[in-house]
Design a protein that fits this description.
Blueprint lengths: L1 E7 L6 H14 E7 L12 H17 L4 E6 L4 H7 L4 E6 L2 H18 L3 E5 L9 H9 L12 H13 L1
Parallel strand pairs: 1-2, 1-4, 2-3, 4-5
This protein binds 4'-phosphopantetheine.
Length: 167
């Protein structure tokens, strides 16, 4: 079985992320979802613990499907160090658009140059490519409906976090 690390901010996890996790479980077997800090996104909506709790709840149906294994961890430092510490064979990233490719390719090449850790891309399901955590946070903040974009477990948490941010 191959172990892969899927790092991200997951603020919050959405259906596009879940699709990548499911594809990675099918393709490689053992997926470690690493909730990381993204230095270019300092002001998140959810705490690390909240993000992890939502990921855990969202991947539960995948675990029940027995297509592979999935573990959820938090990691404070570099993605390559998380990959090493979790004994991952490589990093997996989802690609939605060419814009994602530009960003991901630079990170993948940097991670390989710095630490010899390779990255493999998984194309997102076409029906989900428009989804982004940033717009989900924005819609939720103004009381909009994001049920088509996030796992069911995330919907009430978004409502709660939006109310908390206003209070
Ligand atoms: O979901 P995101 O915000 O697009 O994920 C980006 C993330 C967290 C995977 C990226 O910022 C990252 O790997 N952060 C950890 C720090 C790191 O390894 N930096 C070097 C990148 S080449």
């Amino acid at each position: 079985m191959t172990t892969v690390l899927y790092p991200g901010s997951f603020d919050p996890i959405h259906l596009g992320h879940l699709d990548v996790i499911e594809q990675a479980m099918e393709l490689f077997g053992d997926v470690v979802v690493a909730t990381m800090h993204n230095p270019s996104k300092p002001s998140g909506m959810f705490t690390l613990d909240e993000r992890i709790a939502m990921i855990e709840e969202s991947v539960e149906p995948l675990r029940a499907g027995h297509i592979g294994t999935v573990r959820v961890v938090a990691f404070p430092g570099l993605a390559v160090d998380a990959a090493r510490s979790e004994h991952a064979d490589f990093i997996v990233k989802g690609l939605r658009t060419g814009g994602d490719f530009e960003v991901e390719q630079q990170m993948a090449q940097t991670n390989y140059a710095a630490a010899g850790v390779r990255t493999v891309y998984v194309p997102c399901k076409p029906a989900l490519v428009f989804i982004s955590s940033r717009f989900i946070r924005e819609i939720a903040k103004y009381g909009g409906d994001v049920t088509a974009m996030v796992p069911a477990a995330v919907v009430p948490q978004l409502t709660r976090a939006a109310q908390r941010d206003q209070g």
